[in-house]
Amino acid sequence: DDCATKVGSGKTPNGGASVYIDSGRPFVRSQNIGWGKLILDDVAYISDDIHNTFSGSEIKEDDVLLNITGASIGRCAITEADIIGGNVNQHVCIIRLNTVLLNARLLVELINSRNGQKQIDSYQAGGNREGLNFSQVKQLKFAIPKTLKEQTAIANALSDVDALISELEK
After folding, report:
1. pLDDT at site 69
2. pLDDT at res. 163
3. How many whole angstroms separate alpha carbon 54 and alpha carbon 90?
4. pTM, to two decimals
5. Beta strand segments in the chain, E
6. Of 32, 35, 48, 131, whose CB neighbour count within 10 A is largest?
């Protein structure tokens, strides 16, 4: 909460999937959020008219996207250029940071870490991963370096390790 300027999600348009189109504004759903990366091979699209009714859920550069409901709760990734200007549905929380205080890529790594997932799990009653509310998202706590330079260095190192692991898995 100390580092965020926005914590919120979107909604599904009236008509659901029937209003999706072949191109237009990206509409990011929980299946598009992976562990530290976006999965955009099946991203949906909505019209500008629908987008204009969803102003509160417009995706901006360096937004952190966190799944807050369902089986994929806790998965977190940062925006990519392909989806900026799009929207999220109600299952995806946008965390918009004060970028003077916290590096967005570092926050993604922290949320996806064992410590971050343990905090998310602690909010789930009886081990049933039902959902996170915005208040719970704002209560996530992490030890972070004070300087952005050090945060960026850590985020870069963790990103490099993630890339290496992905290559080794291939």
Report:
1. 92
2. 81
3. 11
4. 0.91
5. 4-9, 25-28, 44-46, 64-67, 76-78, 87-88, 92-97
6. 32
Alpha helices (runs of H) in 13-147, residue ranges in sequence order: 48-51, 104-112, 114-122, 134-138
Phi and psi for 94 in degrees, rounded to 5? Answer: -90, 125
User: For residues 152 and 94, what is the distance between their CA atoms, to the nearest angstrom?
Assistant: 21
The pLDDT value given to residue 21: 95
Q: Provide the 3-class DSSP secondary structure of residue 5.
A: strand
Q: How far apart are CA 25 and CA 112, in angstroms?
A: 27
By CB atoms closer than 10 A (0-12, 13-18, 19+), residue 107 is buried
Tens of pLDDT, residue by residue over 66-124, are: 999 988 999 999 999 999 999 999 999 999 999 899 999 999 999 999 999 999 999 87
**Partners of residue 151 on adjacent β-strands:** none
